[in-house]
Amino acid sequence: MKNQQLFITPAAGKQLIAMGVTRHPRVQQALKDHKLLIVGGTTNSYIVNELMRITGKTPIDPKAFYRGISVPHGAKLNRMDYCGDILFEKGRVAEGGVDLAETVKTMTAGDVIFKGANAINLRDKTAGVLIGNGISGGTSIPIISAVISKRVKLIIPAGLEKRVDEPINDIALALNSDRVEGTRMIELPGRVFTELDAVEALSGCKARLIAGGGVAGGEGGVYILIEGNDSQLEKMIEIYQQVRGEQPLEL
Fold it and tell me: Could you confirm whether domain 11-70+82-194 is CATH 1.10.3430?
């Protein structure tokens, strides 16, 4: 077995995750025979457009496919009206977006939901999402209901820059305390899918996070170590060359 080090920016990571997760057998099956619901988010916009490419549809504009985001102080966004969450049903995409709360009511076992996260614990493979609307719980409550009551599969695509050390449940307990101001957090009952998972899905290589950080557009970037045989490494390097120049989203 041989190894190679790769530096992946958050933007490149989003594209890598999209390429990897759309090749997941459960996702391929849902795209063909079931419902596939993608909830608005920046990483999920890459997933939508990868699915659009696979099915021969017109890509969406990422500026119209996110809700809450984190930006530097003073940032000015050229935001478009939200286009609605995206639903694929047996390979066909619903025009004009869908209402999430109503759509999840129609979902059943075999269907898949994609929802992003704000925090991931790599050791536990758990994820949490920040909740700005403490009254309704945002989009998380109807999704959790569908996962529990209807056995819908939840996949949580999230970049490694969102990793945290503490258990997600401990962070949620702290943020949801009546002594704390600001956002709340909910732990999501789904499968976390990061750049490390994407590497294995796309090439068969094993991947480890070894370092992080960067400047000049590399902020939030990570170094990963990939290990595999010659053909696996060759395949992964080829994919890496495709995504390494991915430019940050201009929102």
Answer: no
